[in-house]
Amino acid sequence: MSNIDLRDLILIGHVIRPHGIAGLLRIVSYAQSKETFFQAGSVFMDRGHNEIEERKVIDIKPHGSSYLLRISDINSIEQAENFKTAKIYMRKDSLIKTDEDEFFYYELLGLNVYLTTGQYLGAVKDVFPTGSNDVYVVEGQGKEFLIPAIHQVIKEINIAEKRMVISPLKGLLDL
Asked: Does the global pTM surpass 0.70?
């Protein structure tokens, strides 16, 4: 059992089921690449019993649309079966930003969004990737706005103040 606060962790995937007889776990990854798991070094497995176990990442490799994860001290199908449907977390402080204009989704959720005029638009409720850029879902004033995460629109993001300032393109806020 690990003494870790869930607020210090970020969800990066979940176990679908064991794979094979040697203790591999078939997982769905929410991370952009398998390198995130290696970067973390260890993951925190939550089997839903108010018990989170820290396990060292031994290996991860693609397997169709999922991944096969090998973690420490899981060497049989019987041991792997204990982790079926477990949530997989890593420490937030293990995440590495490569650019000062880069933000993690969890940092953006809940930001208050204002127009450059100072008018309050709403709060970021979701973020989803598209082929070219992310889109921020902002809810406010009884409406939902889809804001493209591009430099022409996003003028400021201040995580400490939980604030985002946008300059919408013509027609962006029209319904």
From this structure: no
